[in-house]
Amino acid sequence: MEGVVGITGTPGTGKKSVAPLVAVKLGLRCYGLNDLAKTFRLLKSPDGSVDIDELRRRLRRLEGRAVVYGHLLPYAIERDAVFRVAVLRCEPSVLKRRLGKRGYSKDKVVENVEAELIGLESYDAFDVFGADRTYEVDTTRSTPAESARKILSALSGRRLLGRTVDWEHAYDTGAKLRSLLRVDP
Asked: Peptide bond before 46: cis, by omega within 30 degrees of 0?
């Protein structure tokens, strides 16, 4: 295995919990993109967005193999630097509860639930890294340790790569969508 093991997904899908477990099992260093952006002072004020171009330049300097995680992965790491990418997915109504418990604003909850519903992070990862390097892991009912085992299984070739998660069929009416995307006070 040469290159970065990437873990990405919509906020709230479990990246920060799962990535260190994968890194320990593989004996690799683990880097969170948000933490690196803060360390490198790449956060733009006042909106908190990240200078992606500079983050990408800094990440090129990471030597050796590592586990790198964050929702910015498809924008911050080049395809050739990556061995495999796991996209963590979570059923949108469960994700909505997780983000609410974290204290996300109503707008941020809706934005992230919509992104998960349509598979935005997954689409971007497959687009950038390719279907031969990318796969999805459903974390809805899995513990972080179970999700890490699924990733390790895919890294060892015991699990097929590709898209396996589709939430859209569960929200196929206007009423279901309005219920999902409504954030009660």
From this structure: yes
Distance CA 50, CA 55 (A): 8
pTM exceeds 0.85: yes
Helices 174-181 and 106-118: crossing angle, nearest 10°?
140
Contact 172, 180 (CB under 8 A): no
Q: Where are the beta strands (DSSP E) in the chain?
A: 4-9, 29-32, 66-69, 82-89, 134-138
Contact 95, 116 (CB under 8 A): yes
- Nearest CA-CA partner of 1 in 24, 27, 19: 27
CA dist 29 and 49 (Å) reads: 25
For the record, the structure tokens of 96 come out as: 């909505």
> What span, in angstroms and rounded, lies between the C-alpha atoms of 142 and 14?
10
Walk me through the domains of the chain, giving residue ranges and CATH numbers.
4-92+121-165 (3.40.50.300)
- Per DSSP bridges, beta strands 134-138 and 4-9 are unpaired
- Identity of the amino acid at 171: Y
Quote the DSSP letter at residue 13.
Answer: S
Question: What is the pLDDT at residue 47?
Answer: 66
User: What tens digit of pLDDT does each residue of 119-147 get?
Assistant: 999 999 999 999 999 999 999 999 999 99
